[in-house]
Amino acid sequence: MTTPPRLEVQNLIRAFDGQRVVDRVVFAVEAGQVACLLGPSGCGKSTTLRLVAGVDRPDSGQIFVDGKPVCDGKLHIPPERRSVGLMFQDFALFPHLSVSENVAFGLKGGYSANRARVAELLERVRMSSHIDSYPHELSGGEQQRVALVRALAPQPRVLLMDEPFSGLDERLRDGIRDETLALLKEEGTAVLLVTHEPDEAMRMADQILLMRDGRIVQQGAPYNLYNAPADRQAAAFFSDINILNGVVQGALTETPFGDFLTPGIPDGSEVEIVIRPQHLKIDFDRAGQGPAPTHENGTAALARVVRARYLGRESLVEFTTDQGGIALNAVVPGVFLPPADTPMWLMLRRDRVFVFPKE
């Protein structure tokens, strides 16, 4: 017999003033899996989280925990009976309770069992020495750890996290995210995390649910979303992009880098050819001299430097192509700061280029 997903959502719809903010959302999260609802502000991800939590009711659709309905149009189990934990960006610790009292707040066992569970969790996040401290005595990172173990203490089947790291100092964020992920995996909890930061989703998620205008436009492993985006907007959400515009003629589209195969797109259709800055390569040896070099990925394009900036670990070089005056950005590891108007040959990796119908 197949084990049902820990969390399953089917055709969830929620509208306000006639406008759908969650529109036929479908996904599932397995035990021990982290799923990230990712998207810009206002796309519907936090509303989806509230519906799963039970603090808001969908207009239609179904929500299951371990295969059992908690919301299906008629049934609406309240949040405290869903075995769903909540963790939000403001931590929401009770200021008048100690760390141990905060963590034990939702536990139903006796004093000894509760104290043992609290001590176990605090030990795992290296907070044992603060067991009798109060929230105002803790740093932001320490409060985040306490909020996490408080959410996990009752052993919820599903943990919902809404922008949980956004209030942390950037220097602390990566380490605390990694600690959090390790603890969640150990507990085997199904996690639904809301974030608007692609780096956070890529770092933590087993699957990403990319939302736009209330819908999930693409879902899958981070590697797949990054390397096979559904459309130009999906590609742009994960990194900066360059765009070459063209028109299909005979299944080919002409560009400064030569013709691109665009099979299956009708002649006369406009397309957008998307290139990430790190996949635009510079021919350092020829530096714009002589005839256009060719290589296995096609013809190079002659371009001139507009501006170059050093960003710390890499340099960003802005170009304009001689053919068509197209603005392109290239990322180069280390320090590379050529003067403005320097001519250079640019090449690209065609296996890392995406072609989409023009939006």
TrEMBL record:
Alphabetical keyword list: ATP-binding, Cell membrane, Ion transport, Iron, Iron transport, Membrane, Nucleotide-binding, Transport
Residue ranges annotated for the ABC transporter domain, each copy included: 7-238
PANTHER family hit by this protein: SPERMIDINE/PUTRESCINE IMPORT ATP-BINDING PROTEIN POTA, SPERMIDINE_PUTRESCINE IMPORT ATP-BINDING PROTEIN POTA
Protein name, per record: ABC transporter ATP-binding protein
Single GO cellular component term: ATP-binding cassette (ABC) transporter complex
PROSITE patterns with a match to the protein in the record: ABC_TRANSPORTER_1, ABC_TRANSPORTER_2
GO MF terms held by the record: ABC-type ferric iron transporter activity; ATP binding; ATP hydrolysis activity
Parts forming coiled coils: none
SMART domains: AAA
Residues in the signal sequence: none
InterPro entries, per database record: AAA+_ATPase, ABC_SmlMolc_Importer, ABC_transporter-like_ATP-bd, ABC_transporter-like_CS, ABC_transpr_FbpC, Mo/tungstate-bd_C_term_dom, P-loop_NTPase, Transp-assoc_OB_typ2
GO biological process terms held by the UniProt record: quaternary ammonium group transport
Species of the source: Paracoccus methylarcula
Presence of keyword Metal-binding: no
